[in-house]
Amino acid sequence: IGIDMSLNDAEVLAYADPPFIIVENLFCCFFFFEIVVRFVAFTRASMAFGDRWFVFDLALVVLMVAETWIMFLVVRISTDPSQSQEQAFDSSVLRLLKLVRITRVARIARLLRQVPEVMILLKGIGVASRSVFFTCLILLCVVYIFAIALTQLSEDTKLGQTYFPTLADGMFSLLFHGCFFQGLPDFAKLCFQENFMYGFSLLVFVVLAPLTVMNMIVGVLVEVVGIVAAAEQEASTRKSLLESLHKALEKLDLQMTATITKVEFCKIVNRPDIVTVFMEAGIDIVALLRDPDIVFAGDSDMNLDEFLEELITLRGANVATVKDLGQLKTQILREMKQRRGLR
């Protein structure tokens, strides 16, 4: 994309040099073949259009096919080859075609989603957008209040003429000089030279706006990204466990259904590969082997989703919750009943 933007001056592929035409067609063939293979891989068409990433990639491929093949043929048929693209198309049409070319940048999303760390950051920013918006609103209110005060106080002074001639200019000065520290020393020096109160007001603003409110934004982002990363880790662990269980059941000639029995579970945990997966996930496999009822709670089978949730809660790094205490109480009562029955 970068090479094409730098070296290809043609807004329409039909007017580009042959190397660019060949490369664009190769890319178009590759992505078209890929999207067809992915579509065929779905058992039902509704499942394909329910996959957001597939729909996104399909939209990119449709735009690419329209630009590379359909538009190429239309231009070749409807225009005179001897004309330049400026003569063949109106300037507004060329601007529209340029916007279509810019949509190629969206292909970068295909690469970003292959890097989990980047996706976690993007999801964190998306989740934190509401909190960041209100924090920025607080910052804007602080800038507005101090801009009003300093604009009125510095009227008919060099400070007012330079930085606060109007309210809008005052907000601009406080935002870029006070919050982003662009030329802040000169700004602060002039404030203190004019009047100590001006300098003190600027000092209070710097403490409130960039040092407090803007750092709140950083804190919000860090907190939310941490939460999103933990949630993504949980989802990854759950997916890994589900895939491992599926493979183990296939090797044991058992079917993957919506429930799992205690017998199937005992067969699964005796496999070394499953034990390795459980240990990598931090699950206490020793406790599971000693007493499978920790998971099944005395039942012969349980729902697969509930089973995975129970496995995830058995990780050693988890913090004890009220739910864990309730399960412990239930298990103790069950053990007491069993012992009384034996007597």
Automatic annotation (TrEMBL):
InterPro entries hit by this protein: Ion_trans_dom, VGCC_Ca_Na, Volt_channel_dom_sf
Positions of the Ion transport domain: 18-224
Cross-referenced Pfam families: Ion_trans
Lineage top rank: taxon: Eukaryota
Segments crossing the lipid bilayer: 20-41, 53-75, 131-151, 163-184, 196-229
Principal localisation: membrane
SUPFAM superfamilies found in the cross-reference section: Voltage-gated potassium channels
Compartments (UniProt record): Membrane
UniProt record, GO biological process: calcium ion import; membrane depolarization during action potential
Record protein name field: Adenosylmethionine-8-amino-7-oxononanoate aminotransferase
Source organism (scientific name): Cladocopium goreaui
